[in-house]
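Holo prediction. Input below; ligand is 481.
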Amino acid sequence: TSPCDRPAPATAGLSHDKWEIDHTELMLLEELGSGQFGVVRRGKWRGSIDVAVKMMKEGTMSEDDFIEEAKVMTKLQHTNLVQLYGVCSKNRPIFIVTEYMRYGSLLNHLRRHEQSLSNNQGLLLDMCIQICKGMAYLERHNYIHRDLAARNCLVGTENVVKVADFGLARYVLDDQYTSSGGSKFPIKWAPPEVLNYTRFSSKSDVWAYGVLMWEVFTCGKMPYGRLKNTEVVERVQKGMILEKPKACDKEVYDIMRKCWSHLPENRPSFRVLKEQLISVAQRLL
Ligand SMILES: CN1CCN(C(=O)c2ccc(Nc3nc(-c4cccc(NC(=O)c5ccc(C(C)(C)C)cc5)c4)cn4ccnc34)cc2)CC1
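Structure of the complex:
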């Protein structure tokens, strides 16, 4: 059919689609750091809303595919997910604009506050429960994270913890990151079916969540210490799992271990995990 036959897209005629942010309404402030895609800065949107702005370095991401997906991502809304406000896609580099989390990554937060956190099992468990709630929401919406880890969670005021960058891994162009043989692939958070067949699912997110729980209860240790990626792959295939962190109660470790069941179908769902963690927290605290 010729273009004039086709019905106009629903947003035709609107000056901006609702996920499109007008970059003249953004004021860029200090740099927060840099990640897979380049520099991230704090900003103000419409004069008063605190935002984080990822400025996508050219050639680091498949931009058109991401801009299409952004329409779906803006609809994912939960207190334990870092909210995507929108994108500035009319200029290059494109900007990804999200809510701002003032205390940075959970990994750095754990390492910075190890002293006070290491004997506060209640707070560590609460962080895990918050992340589990965010992941249970994604699971309900059949949304797979693909790179869940403490480095990809963020800390806000009053010990709020949120999951960030869910689904973004699909748009990274660097094959050192995307292929399981690559130097940047998150091997230590990957289950056997991802290592062997890159078969991602909410159950592979559950495996990664178990490793994230281990990161939380060790206050940010590197899983499997200095083992090289090839050594980790070999041991995970043979069923080796991470040891119980000192600060961690046996019951909590038993839940971690279930996340590392070899077969995905033997791992609990995030919905079940949430119930188990909440009942352990009630018994323990
Ligand atoms: C007292 N401390 C002082 C130092 N400090 C900070 O400087 C600091 C404070 C707030 C920060 N907040 C945020 N920082 C970031 C941020 C900063 C640097 C890098 C990144 N990460 C990325 O850009 C990034 C992450 C993952 C991925 C893939 C696709 C691989 C999964 C791709 C890109 C995010 C994003 N945010 C979204 C909402 N809030 C933030 C970050 C850092 C923390 C507080």
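The CA atoms of residues 34 and 215 lie 22 Å apart. That is the main takeaway for now.
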